[in-house]
# Entry
Amino acid sequence: MSNQRQSHDFSPALPTAITLHAPPNSSIDKYPSKSHAHRLAAQLHVTNGLVVLAATPAATYPDSDQPVPFRQDRYFYYLTGCDEPGCYVTYDIGKDVLTLWLPAIDEKRVVWTGRGSTVEEAVERYDVDEARYIHGTGAFHSSSAIRLGLPQYLEAHLRQCWNRAAGNESCNKNVYVLSPERVNSIYNPSSPETPLLASASRTLEASRTELKNAINACRTLKDPHEIALIRRANAITAAAHTAVLRNISTYTNEAQVEALYTATCIAQHAKQQAYSPIAGAGPNASVLHYGANDEDFGSREVLVLDAGCEWHCYASDVTRAIPLNTAHPGEWASAEAAGIYKLVETVQEACIAAMEPGASFLGITYMARRMTVDGLLALGILKGDKEAIWKAGTVMGFFPHGLGHHLGLEVHDVSPVAHPPASSLTTCITTSSPEILPYQLPRSFNFPLPTSSSSHSPDPSLLHPGMVITIEPGIYFNRFLLEHFFLSNPTHSPFIDREVLDRYWRVGGVRIEDDILVTGQGYENLTTALKGRGMREAIRGGKGGEGGEGDG
Amino acid sequence: MSNQRQSHDFSPALPTAITLHAPPNSSIDKYPSKSHAHRLAAQLHVTNGLVVLAATPAATYPDSDQPVPFRQDRYFYYLTGCDEPGCYVTYDIGKDVLTLWLPAIDEKRVVWTGRGSTVEEAVERYDVDEARYIHGTGAFHSSSAIRLGLPQYLEAHLRQCWNRAAGNESCNKNVYVLSPERVNSIYNPSSPETPLLASASRTLEASRTELKNAINACRTLKDPHEIALIRRANAITAAAHTAVLRNISTYTNEAQVEALYTATCIAQHAKQQAYSPIAGAGPNASVLHYGANDEDFGSREVLVLDAGCEWHCYASDVTRAIPLNTAHPGEWASAEAAGIYKLVETVQEACIAAMEPGASFLGITYMARRMTVDGLLALGILKGDKEAIWKAGTVMGFFPHGLGHHLGLEVHDVSPVAHPPASSLTTCITTSSPEILPYQLPRSFNFPLPTSSSSHSPDPSLLHPGMVITIEPGIYFNRFLLEHFFLSNPTHSPFIDREVLDRYWRVGGVRIEDDILVTGQGYENLTTALKGRGMREAIRGGKGGEGGEGDG
# Structure
């Protein structure tokens, strides 16, 4: 250490280098961001241009000094595998150079919060060609070669373009920026003649859409590294669900379930949940995104536990409907609860079995809803002519959400944009956040053959190897939904047997959800949490079987 | 239910009333927001004007459908006690009317997320004079009297002002808005002649500052309801710390500590932490806001657990330094660890004992630093002339943060603005987020007498009954801090005995923190988590005494 420093001289001693190039073959076991960059370039169909993505910046709440919980920008992560705040990444498509830009180490903050990666550490940790500091070489590094920062790098790129072509519009066309406001916050051209990155620019907006669609298309098909992360998230989630099963017979309140589930994940170093855990007993099981998780079980019969952790920003999404029964733990408390579980289980198993390349997800959804109508008719909850019920859409009163969604960096992961644009028939799979849509049946459905494998953009209505999609049928007895929109509506009320229904309010709701990987031949279920018979055995204190096929 | 509804007619059936007035005496056991409004009016020294505060809106992450975890705006909460998103509150100072404005119930979302309060529920739950919907009466309520929404209410207020005075500036002077952008997002005057709420207005900015300072002054002195909430948060936190103590001898990794601590809070329905829990062993204990919590204990000797939950938006903030010792659980693993704990314990007890009305917090901080120097000299870590060490500020290498901060709706709660503005001498208490400040000793210190009790703004440098302040001395052996700023600096290096210091790196860090209420006579320690001897007994499996005075 230099002994020349004055008292309270906080000038940085780190870093020891400004730019480091990754050694060859250093990408083994790293998140494959360089491969993602190549896929992106192919998807954009261009041989030149600069992609610029920004990480989520560190932030505090308004009028507060408390930090907002950090959640990395998913597009940035896809091209870096870097979970640090305030970074940028550039990908020069023509030169094939992926550069991670890091904030300077703030030595005054190290004793408070530790610090982010140095450029040396970054090229070791991440699959990038080089790492640099956003603001370039500091004055204290007279021995290092002067390296430009990101603002100068951007300026050079834009100026080159400016010299070749003319005008901002044409240059912005060459730059793909997802969050112009984040880039502009650090971009200060050195001279007024330099082209600006005009965030209001029409061409920039167009290239933003193009970039987003291209990354979405890439993200839809998971590579082995991504699948391994989802698998790991599922393994931890399964352990947490199992812990709940082994203790549920001693619990009396939803909060205990959330507590043990969460603790089991944290103890396995999965601190982030992919979404707020849902632990809803009885009527709360019928609120799809219930989150208070603070009510007593009392005499309720079913607990819906919809909870999945993240692993390195990749989600799992797992739902189990668990029998509550103080007298006979592991048994369904009523024939009604057992019947609804059995029906949902049967639907889920049929849907999972239908997952294969080329299958239409909409077709599988259609099958799920048809089976649900059949089952509700068999139980006597629905009555009347099957096709009339189908046409009225009464099934939406009991199964009011989509069958599933993509899963990856988001729990409701992105879908590729359809070319041609998705028709209403494909909304089931292209809508990541399902809504109660006005009920609409497809006029016909089929399982089309896969499109050509050379296609870069998978047809979003068909299944392709590498897609990970949840299968989550459910049946609910949500009093608000049924009373306000179905029982009071003459289109639906003749098809619902009110007397039978009255026996089913006690069930609340049942949903069973697994994460399904579409493989070359068919599917693999990435979710290993116990269900069916295995789940019930675990509650009774037995070992718990695998999966629990066919015996809910 | 009406049977007139069409299929998929989602027109709202709720609410059954638009405005409800609270019945008299309904505020018992409610969060005392009306009393807070009265305190605010007194603090503003005006008899007329309209206060407008906005709740945190519900939001999703950029380019994602995932909701941002909701955290209520603390200023809004102070005037409502309402933890629901997207609301507003107005307080008409002249008429003494506190109105809570609620978003309309979105019936299509009820099956997804449940719903917020109706106006009927709101006047029951919250201590407000009336509750209304932001957008007023819906067309479906032909039988109810037409009630105006918030935009019309604001417009009427501004127009009244406009008619009396003239111009936007003068009217904006009469409106106290904390977040003009949130208010403008719903405020659309019906005619171009209506005055605008100009967020860029200089008078609006001035009234914003005035409002914020006035609420800050109110928030600094806690009322009995607020103290009860902090006490409850502390009770849950104490139970969670105790659970950790009882299990720590079986644990091998920081993640297990965070898991059990968090689970214990959640199981007691405290889902929100006041800040990210810190569970740092060995060197991690010397990173003040460490948060990874994922390393093995190995042979480390001290675990710093700095973790406190929230209860109804009120914080607790508790730190314990816990002995790690596989051979002899509950004993300090080395004389060095025991010595540092004992020193910090002694300093903390002396500081707590000095907490009383009229005392100067800066004076107590001064005492803490003097005692720390004495202790480090006694241990041989520091050497040389005591006054020379003091003058150099070398103590900042071992105790680099403030002694404490206000606690309330924020873990680093607000402080009143000093009148006259705080001198550098008072930064210890007015800076809620302590930094490593260039070391500065007060030229003198004393314990001034309390200022007149009729003062509305407590002198921020002196303690007043109702303040809740943390006392959290610490001693750290942070290699980065010491090597970069002290050992390499000739101002400090002669005072540090490197050989002795080398025996202390193993300790990592020790911090002990309690939440102290200043009472009329002295203080009350709101923190009940075990420390000292009681803590060590709990680790050994004993019952654990109270507090552990004098025997670390």
Observations:
- Chain A has a mean pLDDT of 84.
